[in-house]
Design the sequence.
């Protein structure tokens, strides 16, 4: 913050003895004596730094955005996270706290569903180790999108809607992901799927696969 006299050199240099200016000067001094800097939480644009300083002992990973909190709460209330924890426990998966309010259940061994990773509420259940999942941020983000889909589908209705979308995709493209709204929204490549709806240039202009 720049000082008041420097910002107004003409007042400070020439008419400083005028009674009106003296009165103004007194007011400025009084104002300055009452001035206090804003707390960091108010002066920081996002307020995030304020949270960080107030939440001493909390790491950044433990602080959730409002959206992540809503998702966490929604999937808790709609019961899907509890279902995920129950399935993880029954399957003997190792449960640990993941980032952004997620729960990671690793070492899943049941044959169904036939997937490397899947979600139930905020629980990401995977066959690989936790470190392998967290070191693959694209896959984790993909699974996290499914967690959000549970929340906005109000929990269990996500499952029949997902299977309908997968069936539709199977009919249209021959695989359950390429035309599946939920998988496309989560990101096909990140989920390990090939987008066969994207036409591929073929040699001699014969045309690619198009659905
Ligand atoms: Zn997926």
Sequence:
């Amino acid at each position: 913050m720049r000082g008041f006299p420097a910002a107004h050199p003409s007042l400070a240099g020439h008419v400083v003895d005028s009674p009106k200016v003296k009165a103004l000067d007194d007011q400025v001094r009084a104002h300055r004596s009452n001035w206090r800097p804003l707390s960091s939480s108010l002066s920081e644009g996002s307020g995030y730094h304020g949270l960080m300083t107030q939440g001493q002992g909390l790491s950044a990973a433990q602080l959730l955005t409002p959206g992540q909190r809503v998702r966490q709460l929604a999937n808790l209330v709609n019961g899907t996270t509890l279902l995920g924890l129950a399935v993880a426990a029954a399957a003997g998966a190792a449960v640990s706290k993941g980032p952004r309010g997620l729960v990671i259940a690793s070492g899943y061994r049941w044959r169904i569903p036939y997937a490397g990773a899947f979600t139930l509420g905020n629980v990401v259940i995977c066959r690989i180790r936790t470190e392998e999942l967290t070191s693959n941020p694209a896959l984790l983000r993909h699974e996290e999108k499914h967690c959000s889909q549970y929340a906005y589908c109000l929990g269990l209705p996500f499952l029949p809607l997902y299977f309908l979308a997968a069936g539709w995709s199977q009919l249209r493209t021959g695989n359950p992901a390429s035309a599946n709204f939920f998988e496309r929204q989560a990101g096909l490549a990140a989920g390990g799927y090939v987008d066969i709806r994207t036409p591929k240039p073929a040699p001699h202009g014969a045309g690619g696969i198009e659905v």
Notes: The CA atoms of residues 41 and 50 lie 3 Å apart.
